[in-house]
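To assess whether the prediction recovers the assembly geometry, we first specified each molecular entity separately, as shown.
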Amino acid sequence: GNSVTQMEGPVTLSEEAFLTINCTYTATGYPSLFWYVQYPGEGLQLLLKATKADDKGSNKGFEATYRKETTSFHLEKGSVQVSDSAVYFCALSGTGGSYIPTFGRGTSLIVHP
Amino acid sequence: NAGVMQNPRHLVRRRGQEARLRCSPMKGHSHVYWYRQLPEEGLKFMVYLQKENIIDESGMPKERFSAEFPKEGPSILRIQQVVRGDSAAYFCASSPAGTSDNEQFFGPGTRLTVL
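The predicted structure of the complete assembly is given in tokenized form:
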């Protein structure tokens, strides 16, 4: 079956530091890949997505590139802010006729002023 | 366009009682997913429904849990005879169609506490 592996958190950074959160996956077929963000007390919301190999998703300064050769979709941001503190989930869409996505366990990011 | 609505936001039940969680999908969305989130355990898929049909319930415990999405009204996740281990955040998500590339739109969740 499909699976998503994210780096363990929490990731603790100072404001304006560079962020990388690693995500690798195994999947049959050709899934779309997503990053969702969850702020405290809220539901998940889509941050960015990529639908095919070599696509780059970007939003609010965050970027991730769909790397088929390394089965990865690492999330990056050049300069984090305190307001980026949240839990980040990597996910892949259902494949093989399934509509059920697969989520990683989430990585908590804490940004200090 | 209102987003996905869930209620109640917080629900407290004693062991053995029933919990009913409601989800109204975004307007125009006919597909609903329920997830459970436990601390440090990420998001676990429970059930996927379309109007009046359960499409996939492979993630839902076979006993005490049930879900429905009637023709009219919200989707309901029902937990009978709750136990302490049912304490978690339950999230509903909707999508406009069953194509797997669609992003999911999440509600704010219902936080269930079983005393």
